[in-house]
Design goal:
Elements (H helix, E strand, L loop, with lengths): L1 H6 L12 H6 L4 H28 L1 H4 L9 H4 L4 H22 L1 H19 L7 H16 L10 H29 L16 H24 L1 H7 L8 H17 L6 H7 L1 H18 L1
Amino acid sequence: MTILSLLRPHQYIKNGFVLLGVVFAGQYAQQTLILAGFAFLAFCAIASAVYIVNDILDVKADQQHPTKRNRPIASGAVALPTAWWLAGGLSCFALFLASQVSLWAFSFVLTYAMLNIGYSMRWKHVPVLDVFIISAGFMLRILTGTVGLGIPPSSWLLLCGLMLTLFLGFTKRRAELLTLERAGVHDRKLTRRVLDDYTPTMIEQYIAISAACTILSYSLYTVSADTVARHGTADLIYTVPLVVYGIYRYLFLLHQRGKGNDTARDLYADRHLLLTVLCWVVVTAVVLT
């Protein structure tokens, strides 16, 4: 269970971004689905490897954090040599799977790994850039599920993905600030140094902008002439209220329930948010088929 906790499998839901291209392009051929499955598993493996490396590099800071100090490496439950071997094995497995999909998929997974190494070592300490790099990781997932599978990526899909992931990234930073404030930790540099460069007002503005852009871009996508022509229906607009409600619910959880530090865990834990996402998936699938 300790190793499983280190891998953070509950985060694999984020790799669902790999499948968005298949869904919105309506590419359901057996070979495409198999390759999409390989791409999904490749990102699951490389994401776990990245989490392990990040925990290794952050071990001293995590030991000072009110909740992260309980992580397997920070608590001493997993030895550093074991963690390094596990990260290396997962990385090789991920790159092997991606190579079976396409050269593009291999390149995107490798870029994701390199980007996150740079993030863990330096870029996570640079305000604003840190969140954009997190967002870039999701964009690479989308590109793997489109270009990597030979599916032309929709500009709307890329735009909506960018805005949504920026929203989630900045809400995570806001949640981290709130967690430290509630725990009475005043020196943010002891935990995540970049938090010392953020202020609540600043992040709230970033959140408001990215939330508005997410809603606007998705709404425009559902009614665009290209979308209607590609899918032969204008009914995707009926999914907009679900997206709006999901964003509002997430903001409620952030400010009133102390959530936001772990998006995947928040999704599983909140039945309102989970039901909203499931309804969006079902309605979208019905409209597009």
